[in-house]
Amino acid sequence: MEVDIKNLGAIKSAHFDLSKRLTVFCGPNNSGKTYAAYMAYALTKSGMKYFKSEESIFVQDLIKNQKANFELITDSIWNYRRDEIKSLNKSLGSIYGVSEDIANNLFKDFSISIAETKKEFDANILRMNFSNELKINDVTIEILKKVDSREINLKLKDTVISKSSIEILELFLTSKLFSLIAFYPFTSSYILPVERNSIYTFSKELSIQKQEFLERAQELGSKKNNRDPFHWYLKKSTRYPMPIRDGLEVAEDLNNYSKTKSEFYSFA
């Protein structure tokens, strides 16, 4: 996946190929390395988007028969990726940890595009070959894509699925598969910032959960509270840049995990 960006901080114009096994950003201080890395991270990070479409019909087959085939329609996935790229322009505040007003001023001339034609994209879809497991909520799904195939084969590993999990699958599974193909080979991404030691050391003081709770409470108290419930479920704090925020979430998850696995957990 080759990407062109313009007017991103100190970067006037840049082109990088994320399909390579290794991409290195190097240069002097304040030359835009962090900006570029954060943008690549945001671009390849599979977020929890949700939508229902005609393509979502296969979810019922999956639940009923424990297996299903998801047809890969190039136009639909191409349009999905185009819309995801456009949405980055609206998410710059969240990506870089600044307010919406500052982002609108700081990145007013920013643009991003993928240097690939639809014909090339279609050819890349046919070349894809992978098998993996996809976990959504508490449901695990085996997925398989073969070379020259325009389908993804899905198989449920769980024989019993709760009603709430079915509803989650209906909302999120299609978009996860779209994202998987649209931004292949990135199923998800992680960044290890220099600040990672500070993140783990001060994760309690920087608690992302507390910050998100505070921001939600403030927004609920404002006049902008006419949002659908999933807005609050998916909303992320803008206090920290996206990679730092995700690092804090991992730190808090690890802390909770270590507590629950402790030999003293039941006693406590």
Beta-strand segment tally = 7
Secondary-structure-based class equals: alpha+beta
Mean residue pLDDT: 78
Uncertain runs with pLDDT below 50, 5 residues or more? none
Q: Name the helix and strand elements from N-terminus to C-terminus, one letter apiece.
A: EEHHEHHHEHEEEHHHHH
Query: Any idea what the radius of gyration is?
Result: 20 Å
How many strands, what sense, and barrel or not for the largest sheet?
4 strands, antiparallel
Strand order of the largest sheet: 3-7-6-5
**Share in helix:** 40-55%
Assign an overall shape. Answer: globular
Instruction: State the separation between the terminal residues, measured CA to CA.
Output: 50 Å
How many domains? 2
Number of helices: 11
Beta-strand percent range: 15-25%
Could you characterize the architecture of this molecule?
The chain is an alpha+beta fold and 268 residues long. The chain folds into two domains: 48-108 and 116-182, no CATH class; 196-259, no CATH class. Helices cover 46% and strands 16% of the residues. The strands form two sheets. It has a four-stranded antiparallel beta sheet. The protein has a three-stranded antiparallel beta sheet with strand order 2-1-4. The longest helix is centred in the middle third of the chain and has 20 residues, at 163-182. The termini are far apart. The model has no long low-confidence stretch (mean pLDDT 78).
